[in-house]
Amino acid sequence: MTPDPARLQELLDREEIRSLVHAYCNAADRHDHAKMRSLYHEDAIDEHGHMSKGPAMDFIDKLPEIQAPMEILHHNVTTINLALDGDRAEGEVYLIALHRVKGPDGPFDVLVGGRYFDRYERRDGRWKFAHRAIVADWANVHSPSIVDLDHPFLEGAHIGKPGPADPSYAFFNLLKRGADA
Ranges for the SnoaL-like domain (predicted)? Predict the structure, then answer.
């Protein structure tokens, strides 16, 4: 049986979009702003609550300031619902994201369950975000933080960090970081 070229192309498109969604999580968690910028079209829109409602490039320009107090960011994508139409696609992407934030009274945790409402476009043969909006469905806040990275159970383990200090930068050779990812 000869594979249907249209179905194969749809499968390839879906996988490229899933990879885009996962790359976003990695860029956010590692505070990798060059990689983040490479995931959006230049004229893309990002709606990120009080942090941003407008051009994605403006949001990414503000990320160093937004992320400065965030000691831990950990985005986990679960369900991905996609609809494709040629060079356009839409996605409803479920996520759970942990934020450990330095506050004036010490660190606090915000665990958010929500969804991304995405519009993707393929331009010049590459899928990128054209519009991304965050939707919060629930949040669990712990103040003070309940994260304990000094617990004896974790002794000897690699501990994740934002930016190039993260152990993944020294460990991986094939997984790229920054704009070349």
Answer: 9-132
Q: Sheet harboring 106-123: ordered strands across?
A: 53-55, 40-47, 126-142, 106-123, 88-103, 70-85
Predicted TM-score (pTM) of the model is 0.91
C-alpha span between 13 and 10 (Å, rounded): 5
Give the pLDDT confidence of 127-159 residue by residue, as tens digits: 999 999 999 999 999 999 999 999 999 899 989
Q: Omega of the bond prior to 144 within 30 degrees of 0, cis?
A: yes
Quote the domain boundaries for residue 65: 5-175
Residue at 141 is within a domain: yes
- In terms of phi and psi (left: phi > 0; alpha: psi -120 to 50; beta: otherwise), the region of 54 is left
